[in-house]
Amino acid sequence: MDKNKDMRTPIRKLPSWWVSLVPFAVLTLTLVVVIKIFGADALSGGSQVCLLLASAVTAAISMFAYGNPWQILEDCILDNIRSVGSAILILFLIGAIAGTWMVSGIVPAMICYGMEIIFPAIFLAAACAISALVSLMTGSSWTTIATIGVALIGIGIAQGFDPGWTAGAIISGAYFGDKVSPLSDTTVLASSASGTPLFTHIRYMMLTTIPSLTVAIIVFLIASLIHPTENLSQTAEFAEALKSTFHITPWLMIVPVLTGVLIVRKVPAILTLFCAAVMAALVALIFQPQAIWAVANPALPSSEFSTLSFWDACKGITVTFYGATGIQTGNEAIDSLIATRGMTGMLNTIFLIICSVTFGGVLAGSGMLKSLTELFARLARRAVTLVGATVGTGLMCNIVTGDQYISILLTSSLYKKLYERKGYERRLLSRSVEDSATVTSVLIPWNSCGMTQATVLKVPTLEYLPYCFFNLISPLMSVCVAAIGYKIFRVRPEATEEEKG
Description:
26 helices, mainly alpha
Protein backbone atom coordinates (compact mmCIF):
# COMPACT_ATOMS: atom_id res chain seq x y z
CA MET A 1 0.00 0.00 0.00
CA ASP A 2 1.35 3.41 -1.00
CA LYS A 3 2.21 5.35 2.12
CA ASN A 4 0.96 8.55 0.47
CA LYS A 5 -2.42 7.19 -0.59
CA ASP A 6 -4.17 8.79 2.36
CA MET A 7 -3.26 12.19 0.90
CA ARG A 8 -4.45 11.24 -2.61
CA THR A 9 -1.20 12.48 -4.14
CA PRO A 10 1.52 10.77 -6.20
CA ILE A 11 4.31 12.72 -4.50
CA ARG A 12 7.51 12.14 -6.41
CA LYS A 13 9.72 12.91 -3.42
CA LEU A 14 8.76 13.66 0.16
CA PRO A 15 10.21 17.03 1.25
CA SER A 16 12.67 16.91 4.12
CA TRP A 17 11.53 18.19 7.47
CA TRP A 18 13.66 21.33 7.23
CA VAL A 19 12.16 22.22 3.83
CA SER A 20 8.73 21.60 5.35
CA LEU A 21 9.46 24.29 7.93
CA VAL A 22 9.99 26.99 5.27
CA PRO A 23 6.25 27.81 4.94
CA PHE A 24 6.02 28.18 8.71
CA ALA A 25 8.98 30.55 8.68
CA VAL A 26 7.29 32.63 5.98
CA LEU A 27 4.03 32.64 7.94
CA THR A 28 5.82 33.69 11.13
CA LEU A 29 7.71 36.56 9.52
CA THR A 30 4.67 37.95 7.71
CA LEU A 31 2.51 37.66 10.85
CA VAL A 32 5.08 39.60 12.85
CA VAL A 33 4.87 42.42 10.31
CA VAL A 34 1.07 42.36 10.15
CA ILE A 35 0.60 42.28 13.92
CA LYS A 36 3.09 45.11 14.29
CA ILE A 37 1.10 47.20 11.79
CA PHE A 38 -2.49 46.28 12.68
CA GLY A 39 -2.27 45.03 16.27
CA ALA A 40 -5.48 43.37 17.46
CA ASP A 41 -7.11 44.25 14.11
CA ALA A 42 -4.83 41.77 12.32
CA LEU A 43 -7.68 39.23 12.31
CA SER A 44 -9.77 41.55 10.15
CA GLY A 45 -7.79 40.51 7.09
CA GLY A 46 -4.05 40.87 7.63
CA SER A 47 -3.56 37.40 9.15
CA GLN A 48 -5.63 35.88 6.37
CA VAL A 49 -3.36 37.45 3.76
CA CYS A 50 -0.34 35.98 5.58
CA LEU A 51 -1.88 32.52 5.40
CA LEU A 52 -2.57 32.85 1.69
CA LEU A 53 1.00 34.07 1.08
CA ALA A 54 2.41 31.11 3.03
CA SER A 55 0.12 28.84 0.99
CA ALA A 56 1.51 30.33 -2.22
CA VAL A 57 5.10 29.72 -1.08
CA THR A 58 4.23 26.12 -0.18
CA ALA A 59 2.60 25.56 -3.57
CA ALA A 60 5.59 27.08 -5.38
CA ILE A 61 8.07 24.81 -3.58
CA SER A 62 5.90 21.76 -4.22
CA MET A 63 5.32 22.48 -7.91
CA PHE A 64 8.72 23.80 -8.99
CA ALA A 65 11.12 22.00 -6.63
CA TYR A 66 9.33 18.65 -6.45
CA GLY A 67 7.27 18.59 -9.66
CA ASN A 68 3.86 18.03 -8.09
CA PRO A 69 0.87 19.12 -10.22
CA TRP A 70 -1.40 21.96 -9.07
CA GLN A 71 -4.49 19.74 -9.30
CA ILE A 72 -3.25 17.65 -6.38
CA LEU A 73 -2.89 20.73 -4.18
CA GLU A 74 -6.27 22.09 -5.24
CA ASP A 75 -8.02 18.81 -4.44
CA CYS A 76 -6.53 18.82 -0.94
CA ILE A 77 -7.60 22.45 -0.41
CA LEU A 78 -11.17 21.67 -1.48
CA ASP A 79 -11.27 18.59 0.77
CA ASN A 80 -10.21 20.72 3.74
CA ILE A 81 -12.82 23.39 2.99
CA ARG A 82 -15.55 20.74 2.73
CA SER A 83 -14.45 19.32 6.09
CA VAL A 84 -15.22 22.60 7.88
CA GLY A 85 -18.54 23.22 6.15
CA SER A 86 -20.63 22.21 9.16
CA ALA A 87 -18.39 24.27 11.47
CA ILE A 88 -19.07 27.36 9.38
CA LEU A 89 -22.82 26.80 9.69
CA ILE A 90 -22.42 26.33 13.45
CA LEU A 91 -20.47 29.58 13.68
CA PHE A 92 -23.30 31.44 11.95
CA LEU A 93 -25.77 29.96 14.44
CA ILE A 94 -23.47 30.97 17.30
CA GLY A 95 -23.62 34.52 15.99
CA ALA A 96 -27.42 34.31 15.98
CA ILE A 97 -27.42 33.07 19.57
CA ALA A 98 -25.05 35.84 20.63
CA GLY A 99 -27.68 38.33 19.50
CA THR A 100 -30.86 36.58 20.63
CA TRP A 101 -29.60 35.52 24.05
CA MET A 102 -28.41 39.03 24.75
CA VAL A 103 -31.46 40.96 23.53
CA SER A 104 -33.83 38.48 25.19
CA GLY A 105 -32.23 39.28 28.55
CA ILE A 106 -30.96 35.75 29.15
CA VAL A 107 -27.29 36.69 29.44
CA PRO A 108 -28.00 39.90 31.41
CA ALA A 109 -30.07 37.84 33.85
CA MET A 110 -27.24 35.35 34.29
CA ILE A 111 -24.85 38.22 34.96
CA CYS A 112 -27.16 39.79 37.54
CA TYR A 113 -27.74 36.55 39.40
CA GLY A 114 -24.02 35.77 39.27
CA MET A 115 -23.00 39.14 40.70
CA GLU A 116 -25.26 38.66 43.69
CA ILE A 117 -22.80 36.14 45.10
CA ILE A 118 -19.92 38.65 45.17
CA PHE A 119 -18.77 39.78 48.59
CA PRO A 120 -15.24 40.74 49.66
CA ALA A 121 -14.14 37.55 51.36
CA ILE A 122 -14.56 35.56 48.15
CA PHE A 123 -14.03 38.29 45.54
CA LEU A 124 -11.31 36.64 43.42
CA ALA A 125 -13.06 33.27 43.43
CA ALA A 126 -16.35 34.97 42.57
CA ALA A 127 -14.70 36.98 39.79
CA CYS A 128 -13.39 33.75 38.31
CA ALA A 129 -16.78 32.02 38.65
CA ILE A 130 -18.77 34.94 37.20
CA SER A 131 -16.38 35.28 34.27
CA ALA A 132 -16.69 31.54 33.66
CA LEU A 133 -20.49 31.77 33.76
CA VAL A 134 -20.71 34.73 31.39
CA SER A 135 -18.18 33.22 29.00
CA LEU A 136 -20.02 29.91 29.08
CA MET A 137 -23.27 31.66 28.16
CA THR A 138 -21.78 33.90 25.49
CA GLY A 139 -19.08 31.58 24.16
CA SER A 140 -16.60 34.45 24.04
CA SER A 141 -13.71 35.13 26.38
CA TRP A 142 -12.99 38.42 24.58
CA THR A 143 -16.52 39.75 25.13
CA THR A 144 -16.51 38.60 28.74
CA ILE A 145 -13.18 40.25 29.53
CA ALA A 146 -14.04 43.47 27.67
CA THR A 147 -17.32 43.88 29.58
CA ILE A 148 -17.76 42.20 32.94
CA GLY A 149 -13.98 41.88 33.21
CA VAL A 150 -13.49 45.65 33.03
CA ALA A 151 -16.06 46.12 35.81
CA LEU A 152 -14.44 43.45 37.97
CA ILE A 153 -11.01 45.04 37.54
CA GLY A 154 -12.48 48.31 38.85
CA ILE A 155 -14.07 46.56 41.82
CA GLY A 156 -10.83 44.76 42.59
CA ILE A 157 -8.82 47.97 42.55
CA ALA A 158 -11.40 49.68 44.79
CA GLN A 159 -11.16 46.79 47.24
CA GLY A 160 -7.36 46.83 47.26
CA PHE A 161 -6.63 43.74 45.19
CA ASP A 162 -3.55 43.69 42.98
CA PRO A 163 -4.65 44.14 39.33
CA GLY A 164 -2.55 41.14 38.33
CA TRP A 165 -4.50 38.87 40.69
CA THR A 166 -7.86 40.23 39.54
CA ALA A 167 -6.95 39.97 35.86
CA GLY A 168 -5.72 36.42 36.42
CA ALA A 169 -9.04 35.44 38.02
CA ILE A 170 -11.06 37.04 35.22
CA ILE A 171 -8.98 35.47 32.44
CA SER A 172 -9.00 32.06 34.12
CA GLY A 173 -12.79 32.04 34.29
CA ALA A 174 -13.28 33.57 30.84
CA TYR A 175 -11.09 30.99 29.13
CA PHE A 176 -12.77 28.15 30.99
CA GLY A 177 -16.13 29.23 29.58
CA ASP A 178 -14.65 29.89 26.15
CA LYS A 179 -13.13 26.42 26.18
CA VAL A 180 -16.23 24.37 27.10
CA SER A 181 -19.08 26.46 25.71
CA PRO A 182 -20.82 25.03 22.62
CA LEU A 183 -21.17 28.67 21.52
CA SER A 184 -17.40 29.22 21.41
CA ASP A 185 -15.77 29.53 17.99
CA THR A 186 -12.50 28.04 19.30
CA THR A 187 -14.37 25.03 20.71
CA VAL A 188 -16.15 24.49 17.41
CA LEU A 189 -12.89 24.99 15.54
CA ALA A 190 -10.90 22.49 17.65
CA SER A 191 -13.60 19.83 17.40
CA SER A 192 -14.17 20.25 13.65
CA ALA A 193 -10.45 20.43 12.79
CA SER A 194 -9.91 17.03 14.41
CA GLY A 195 -13.16 15.52 13.17
CA THR A 196 -14.68 15.16 16.66
CA PRO A 197 -18.43 15.77 17.29
CA LEU A 198 -18.84 19.02 19.20
CA PHE A 199 -20.54 17.70 22.34
CA THR A 200 -18.28 14.63 22.45
CA HIS A 201 -15.34 17.03 22.46
CA ILE A 202 -16.86 19.15 25.25
CA ARG A 203 -17.69 16.17 27.47
CA TYR A 204 -14.19 14.72 27.08
CA MET A 205 -12.58 18.08 27.94
CA MET A 206 -14.34 18.06 31.31
CA LEU A 207 -11.85 15.42 32.51
CA THR A 208 -9.05 18.00 32.41
CA THR A 209 -10.97 21.27 32.53
CA ILE A 210 -13.00 20.77 35.71
CA PRO A 211 -9.96 19.79 37.84
CA SER A 212 -7.97 22.72 36.44
CA LEU A 213 -10.72 25.23 37.24
CA THR A 214 -11.28 23.69 40.68
CA VAL A 215 -7.62 24.17 41.61
CA ALA A 216 -7.68 27.72 40.26
CA ILE A 217 -10.81 28.68 42.23
CA ILE A 218 -9.38 27.20 45.44
CA VAL A 219 -6.25 29.33 45.04
CA PHE A 220 -8.35 32.45 44.34
CA LEU A 221 -10.59 31.70 47.34
CA ILE A 222 -7.60 31.42 49.69
CA ALA A 223 -6.16 34.67 48.33
CA SER A 224 -9.53 36.41 48.87
CA LEU A 225 -9.88 35.15 52.43
CA ILE A 226 -6.44 36.47 53.25
CA HIS A 227 -7.35 39.90 51.86
CA PRO A 228 -11.00 40.79 52.73
CA THR A 229 -12.46 44.06 51.36
CA GLU A 230 -15.65 46.09 51.63
CA ASN A 231 -16.59 48.11 48.50
CA LEU A 232 -19.47 46.76 46.38
CA SER A 233 -20.88 49.99 44.95
CA GLN A 234 -19.69 49.38 41.39
CA THR A 235 -21.28 45.93 41.40
CA ALA A 236 -24.60 47.45 42.43
CA GLU A 237 -24.37 50.07 39.64
CA PHE A 238 -23.63 47.36 37.09
CA ALA A 239 -26.61 45.27 38.20
CA GLU A 240 -28.90 48.30 38.35
CA ALA A 241 -28.05 49.30 34.77
CA LEU A 242 -28.98 45.83 33.55
CA LYS A 243 -32.20 45.71 35.54
CA SER A 244 -33.29 49.14 34.32
CA THR A 245 -32.78 48.05 30.69
CA PHE A 246 -34.07 44.47 30.78
CA HIS A 247 -36.92 42.69 32.50
CA ILE A 248 -34.85 40.36 34.67
CA THR A 249 -36.87 37.33 35.76
CA PRO A 250 -36.13 33.66 36.54
CA TRP A 251 -38.45 32.72 33.66
CA LEU A 252 -35.66 33.70 31.29
CA MET A 253 -33.70 30.69 32.51
CA ILE A 254 -36.14 28.38 30.70
CA VAL A 255 -34.13 28.75 27.50
CA PRO A 256 -30.75 27.74 29.00
CA VAL A 257 -32.45 24.83 30.79
CA LEU A 258 -34.12 23.58 27.61
CA THR A 259 -30.87 24.03 25.70
CA GLY A 260 -29.14 21.95 28.36
CA VAL A 261 -31.79 19.25 27.93
CA LEU A 262 -31.12 19.15 24.19
CA ILE A 263 -27.38 18.86 24.84
CA VAL A 264 -27.88 16.03 27.37
CA ARG A 265 -30.12 14.19 24.90
CA LYS A 266 -27.31 14.49 22.35
CA VAL A 267 -29.33 16.37 19.78
CA PRO A 268 -27.00 17.38 16.89
CA ALA A 269 -25.21 20.65 17.55
CA ILE A 270 -26.70 22.49 14.57
CA LEU A 271 -30.27 21.62 15.63
CA THR A 272 -29.54 22.46 19.28
CA LEU A 273 -28.11 25.87 18.45
CA PHE A 274 -30.92 26.67 16.02
CA CYS A 275 -33.55 25.78 18.62
CA ALA A 276 -31.71 27.82 21.26
CA ALA A 277 -31.74 30.90 19.01
CA VAL A 278 -35.42 30.52 18.10
CA MET A 279 -36.47 29.98 21.73
CA ALA A 280 -34.52 33.07 22.77
CA ALA A 281 -36.23 35.11 20.05
CA LEU A 282 -39.65 34.06 21.33
CA VAL A 283 -38.65 34.90 24.90
CA ALA A 284 -37.43 38.32 23.73
CA LEU A 285 -40.84 39.08 22.23
CA ILE A 286 -42.53 38.18 25.51
CA PHE A 287 -40.21 39.75 28.09
CA GLN A 288 -38.13 42.37 26.22
CA PRO A 289 -40.41 44.19 23.72
CA GLN A 290 -38.62 47.47 24.45
CA ALA A 291 -35.26 45.90 23.54
CA ILE A 292 -36.65 44.51 20.28
CA TRP A 293 -38.06 47.96 19.47
CA ALA A 294 -34.68 49.59 20.21
CA VAL A 295 -32.93 47.18 17.84
CA ALA A 296 -35.50 47.89 15.12
CA ASN A 297 -35.26 51.66 15.65
CA PRO A 298 -31.64 52.41 16.63
CA ALA A 299 -31.91 56.09 15.63
CA LEU A 300 -34.88 56.79 17.94
CA PRO A 301 -34.60 57.47 21.69
CA SER A 302 -35.98 54.78 23.98
CA SER A 303 -38.44 57.31 25.45
CA GLU A 304 -40.51 57.08 22.24
CA PHE A 305 -41.32 53.40 22.82
CA SER A 306 -44.95 52.66 23.63
CA THR A 307 -45.96 49.37 22.02
CA LEU A 308 -44.18 46.91 19.77
CA SER A 309 -45.82 46.77 16.33
CA PHE A 310 -45.82 43.66 14.15
CA TRP A 311 -43.37 45.19 11.67
CA ASP A 312 -41.01 46.42 14.39
CA ALA A 313 -41.08 42.94 15.92
CA CYS A 314 -40.21 41.31 12.59
CA LYS A 315 -37.42 43.78 11.90
CA GLY A 316 -35.99 43.67 15.43
CA ILE A 317 -35.89 39.87 15.60
CA THR A 318 -34.35 39.60 12.13
CA VAL A 319 -31.62 42.14 12.95
CA THR A 320 -30.97 40.38 16.26
CA PHE A 321 -30.20 37.19 14.33
CA TYR A 322 -27.87 38.63 11.72
CA GLY A 323 -26.77 42.19 12.51
CA ALA A 324 -25.59 44.75 15.02
CA THR A 325 -27.64 45.42 18.14
CA GLY A 326 -26.99 48.55 20.14
CA ILE A 327 -29.18 49.22 23.18
CA GLN A 328 -28.34 52.28 25.28
CA THR A 329 -28.36 51.84 29.06
CA GLY A 330 -26.43 54.89 30.18
CA ASN A 331 -23.53 52.68 31.29
CA GLU A 332 -20.68 52.29 28.78
CA ALA A 333 -19.59 48.90 30.10
CA ILE A 334 -23.13 47.56 29.84
CA ASP A 335 -23.60 49.10 26.38
CA SER A 336 -20.47 47.25 25.25
CA LEU A 337 -21.69 44.02 26.82
CA ILE A 338 -25.11 43.96 25.17
CA ALA A 339 -23.87 45.15 21.77
CA THR A 340 -23.66 42.13 19.45
CA ARG A 341 -23.14 41.68 15.72
CA GLY A 342 -25.09 38.48 15.12
CA MET A 343 -24.11 36.26 12.22
CA THR A 344 -22.13 39.03 10.51
CA GLY A 345 -19.85 39.15 13.54
CA MET A 346 -18.59 35.68 12.58
CA LEU A 347 -17.44 36.62 9.09
CA ASN A 348 -13.85 37.48 10.06
CA THR A 349 -13.51 34.16 11.88
CA ILE A 350 -14.93 32.26 8.91
CA PHE A 351 -12.58 34.20 6.60
CA LEU A 352 -9.67 33.11 8.79
CA ILE A 353 -10.84 29.49 8.87
CA ILE A 354 -11.06 29.26 5.08
CA CYS A 355 -7.56 30.73 4.67
CA SER A 356 -6.17 28.45 7.39
CA VAL A 357 -7.61 25.26 5.91
CA THR A 358 -6.25 26.40 2.55
CA PHE A 359 -2.79 26.54 4.09
CA GLY A 360 -3.34 23.16 5.71
CA GLY A 361 -4.54 21.69 2.40
CA VAL A 362 -1.45 22.86 0.52
CA LEU A 363 0.78 21.50 3.29
CA ALA A 364 -0.97 18.13 3.02
CA GLY A 365 -0.94 18.01 -0.77
CA SER A 366 2.74 18.93 -0.97
CA GLY A 367 3.74 16.17 1.45
CA MET A 368 5.23 18.66 3.92
CA LEU A 369 2.60 17.82 6.52
CA LYS A 370 3.42 14.13 6.19
CA SER A 371 7.14 14.84 6.49
CA LEU A 372 6.65 16.74 9.76
CA THR A 373 4.23 14.13 11.06
CA GLU A 374 6.75 11.35 10.47
CA LEU A 375 9.32 13.37 12.42
CA PHE A 376 6.90 13.67 15.35
CA ALA A 377 5.98 9.98 15.04
CA ARG A 378 9.58 8.98 15.72
CA LEU A 379 9.56 11.09 18.89
CA ALA A 380 6.10 10.21 20.26
CA ARG A 381 5.69 6.52 21.07
CA ARG A 382 3.28 6.55 24.04
CA ALA A 383 0.09 8.44 24.83
CA VAL A 384 1.82 10.76 27.29
CA THR A 385 4.59 11.68 24.84
CA LEU A 386 2.06 12.14 22.04
CA VAL A 387 -0.14 14.41 24.17
CA GLY A 388 2.93 16.20 25.48
CA ALA A 389 4.15 16.83 21.93
CA THR A 390 0.69 18.11 20.95
CA VAL A 391 0.52 20.45 23.93
CA GLY A 392 4.03 21.70 23.28
CA THR A 393 3.25 22.30 19.61
CA GLY A 394 0.10 24.24 20.50
CA LEU A 395 2.12 26.49 22.80
CA MET A 396 4.90 26.95 20.24
CA CYS A 397 2.36 27.80 17.51
CA ASN A 398 0.93 30.50 19.78
CA ILE A 399 4.41 31.89 20.29
CA VAL A 400 5.40 31.66 16.63
CA THR A 401 2.17 32.59 14.81
CA GLY A 402 0.75 35.00 17.38
CA ASP A 403 -2.84 33.79 16.95
CA GLN A 404 -4.88 31.05 18.66
CA TYR A 405 -7.07 30.24 15.63
CA ILE A 406 -4.06 29.54 13.45
CA SER A 407 -2.47 27.57 16.31
CA ILE A 408 -5.55 25.37 16.71
CA LEU A 409 -5.76 24.62 13.01
CA LEU A 410 -2.05 24.03 12.49
CA THR A 411 -1.67 21.78 15.54
CA SER A 412 -4.75 19.76 14.54
CA SER A 413 -3.46 19.40 10.97
CA LEU A 414 0.00 18.32 12.10
CA TYR A 415 -1.22 15.57 14.43
CA LYS A 416 -4.52 14.33 12.97
CA LYS A 417 -2.97 11.59 10.82
CA LEU A 418 -0.49 10.68 13.54
CA TYR A 419 -3.25 10.07 16.11
CA GLU A 420 -5.03 7.89 13.55
CA ARG A 421 -1.87 5.90 12.83
CA LYS A 422 -1.24 5.41 16.55
CA GLY A 423 -4.82 4.25 17.01
CA TYR A 424 -5.94 6.96 19.46
CA GLU A 425 -9.37 8.55 19.46
CA ARG A 426 -9.86 11.87 17.74
CA ARG A 427 -11.31 13.38 20.89
CA LEU A 428 -7.90 12.97 22.56
CA LEU A 429 -6.41 15.19 19.86
CA SER A 430 -9.14 17.83 20.08
CA ARG A 431 -8.82 17.99 23.88
CA SER A 432 -5.02 18.23 23.76
CA VAL A 433 -5.26 21.05 21.24
CA GLU A 434 -7.75 22.99 23.36
CA ASP A 435 -5.73 22.37 26.52
CA SER A 436 -2.81 24.13 24.87
CA ALA A 437 -3.54 26.30 21.83
CA THR A 438 -6.75 27.85 23.22
CA VAL A 439 -5.73 28.63 26.79
CA THR A 440 -2.08 29.63 26.36
CA SER A 441 -2.73 32.25 23.67
CA VAL A 442 -3.57 34.90 26.27
CA LEU A 443 -0.23 34.30 28.04
CA ILE A 444 1.88 35.41 25.06
CA PRO A 445 2.46 39.22 25.03
CA TRP A 446 2.64 39.46 21.21
CA ASN A 447 -0.23 37.03 20.58
CA SER A 448 -3.46 38.70 19.43
CA CYS A 449 -5.18 37.43 22.61
CA GLY A 450 -2.40 38.57 24.92
CA MET A 451 -2.25 42.01 23.33
CA THR A 452 -6.01 42.47 23.39
CA GLN A 453 -6.60 41.45 27.00
CA ALA A 454 -3.64 43.45 28.29
CA THR A 455 -5.03 46.52 26.51
CA VAL A 456 -8.62 46.00 27.64
CA LEU A 457 -7.79 45.29 31.28
CA LYS A 458 -4.89 47.78 31.34
CA VAL A 459 -2.72 45.12 32.98
CA PRO A 460 0.49 44.03 31.17
CA THR A 461 0.53 40.41 30.01
CA LEU A 462 3.56 39.49 32.10
CA GLU A 463 1.91 41.04 35.16
CA TYR A 464 -1.23 38.88 35.03
CA LEU A 465 0.49 35.75 33.63
CA PRO A 466 1.57 34.28 37.03
CA TYR A 467 -2.05 34.47 38.27
CA CYS A 468 -3.80 32.86 35.28
CA PHE A 469 -3.87 29.58 37.14
CA PHE A 470 -6.44 27.88 34.92
CA ASN A 471 -4.46 28.70 31.77
CA LEU A 472 -1.21 27.51 33.35
CA ILE A 473 -2.64 24.33 34.84
CA SER A 474 -4.67 23.12 31.82
CA PRO A 475 -1.70 22.07 29.62
CA LEU A 476 -0.05 20.32 32.58
CA MET A 477 -3.32 18.61 33.52
CA SER A 478 -3.69 17.29 29.98
CA VAL A 479 -0.24 15.67 30.13
CA CYS A 480 -0.84 14.32 33.66
CA VAL A 481 -4.14 12.68 32.70
CA ALA A 482 -2.43 11.10 29.68
CA ALA A 483 0.39 9.85 31.92
CA ILE A 484 -2.12 8.25 34.27
CA GLY A 485 -3.97 6.80 31.28
CA TYR A 486 -7.40 7.77 32.60
CA LYS A 487 -10.06 7.51 29.86
CA ILE A 488 -7.34 7.20 27.20
CA PHE A 489 -8.69 4.70 24.69
CA ARG A 490 -7.46 3.31 21.40
CA VAL A 491 -9.63 2.86 18.35
CA ARG A 492 -7.29 0.00 17.45
CA PRO A 493 -6.24 -1.78 20.69
CA GLU A 494 -3.47 -3.75 19.03
CA ALA A 495 -0.10 -2.02 18.65
CA THR A 496 1.24 -1.24 15.21
CA GLU A 497 4.50 -2.79 14.00
CA GLU A 498 6.17 0.60 14.46
CA GLU A 499 5.03 0.76 18.09
CA LYS A 500 6.10 -2.83 18.77
CA GLY A 501 9.56 -2.03 17.45
